[in-house]
Specification:
The chain is built from 16 helices and 2 strands. The chain is mainly α and about 325 residues long. The chain has a two-stranded antiparallel sheet with strand order 1-2.
């Protein structure tokens, strides 16, 4: 992925996040700045080699959507001590996210991530695994640094376990074009929805049980929709927007929603052997066939229905907090538009 393509691919998401930050006001912006400073400081403190790669991974990070959800789910923080806890939680969530990306790149032998060489491409498998392990361990150390509230640790450890379980499901399902919609959705909830859920839960822990659970469910649904729309983009492209060839998932043997829906409408897709796809041109041909079935429209509708579920499921919150979370939901939709 070139840097120009990366910028084009993330412009819509960046604009949506900027709207949320503006709606949240200077206090939200200040919390995000504290989070960024802490991430940089943590990455730089573990020896020259690991520090270099950890810093590069964090510095290349996206728009910090998960830390943003931590702060939005908390609403109005009561005092400085609670703000400090929230910053630690936001940092920990982003470290887990970064660690999972480094390890995913090892498993996929990926050359580029966000327009830059991956750790595994730049330094090899051993250093990449160590960098990911460092980021994972620092996430829990960050929670412990503030006294390690048990509920915080439980929320983050559940998400980390879900990420690993989701990766195992994806590997088990590789090249199997016959996996069910239910299994695919569960995989997306584990690999993507779980960390969005943890972000919202960590932010909302001080607000009470029912509200915390409702916001956690909002996060899970937003994460699920985020992944569904990302999988639609893999098939629909264009490469100039996504920064990768159409059908990259297909070439990797990863079955996603467009193929699952398309195979129900096209007997040839139902008989498809993903291992027979050898080149980007082969994958493009399958993408065109999927699109011809109308599966992309149906997949997008499915994702939008999940976003609407998330919005309807929000508990009664102060107007500013409610609107900010709704802007997050709108931003997920705009990412596809």
């Amino acid at each position: 992925m070139t840097r120009a393509a990366e910028r084009e691919a993330t412009t819509t998401t960046a604009a949506a996040v900027d709207r949320v930050v503006r709606a949240g006001g200077p206090r939200l912006a200040a919390l995000l700045e504290r989070t960024e400073e802490r991430l940089v400081a943590l990455a730089a403190g573990h020896g020259t080699t690991l520090a270099h790669h950890a810093t590069a991974t964090i510095s290349a990070g996206g728009k910090r959507l998960r830390p943003l959800l931590v702060f939005l789910s908390a609403g109005e923080m009561a005092d400085g001590a609670e703000e400090a806890r929230l910053v630690r939680a936001a940092v920990a969530v982003e470290l887990i996210h970064s660690a999972s990306l480094v390890h995913d790149d090892v498993l996929d032998a990926a050359a580029l991530r966000r327009g830059a060489p991956t750790v595994v491409a730049a330094a090899g498998r051993t250093i990449a695994i160590a960098t990911g392990d460092l980021l994972f361990s620092r996430a829990f150390a960050e929670l412990a640094a503030g006294g390690g509230q048990l509920d915080d640790v439980r929320a983050l450890s559940a998400a980390a376990s879900a990420l690993a379980a989701g990766e195992l499901v994806q590997r088990a399902d590789a090249w199997d074009a016959g996996i069910s919609l239910e299994r695919y959705i569960r995989r997306c909830e584990l690999k993507t929805g779980s960390l969005f859920e943890a972000a919202c839960r960590l932010g909302a822990l001080g607000t009470g049980g029912d509200v915390t659970d409702a916001l956690a469910l909002f996060g899970r649904r937003i994460g699920l929709a985020f992944q569904l729309l990302d999988d639609v983009l893999d098939v629909s492209g264009p490469a100039a927007r996504t920064g990768k060839a159409r059908g990259t998932d297909l070439l990797d043997g990863t079955v996603t929603l467009p193929l699952i829906l398309g195979r129900e409408r096209d007997p040839e897709l139902a008989r498809l052997d993903l291992r027979a796809l050898r080149t980007p041109a082969d994958a493009e041909e399958v993408c065109d066939r999927i699109a011809a079935t109308g599966a992309l429209v149906s997949a997008k509708e499915h994702a939008l229905a999940v976003v609407e579920q998330a919005r309807r499921g929000l508990p009664l919150l102060p107007p500013a907090q409610q609107r900010a979370l709704e802007l997050v939901a709108e931003g997920v939709v705009e990412r596809y538009a």
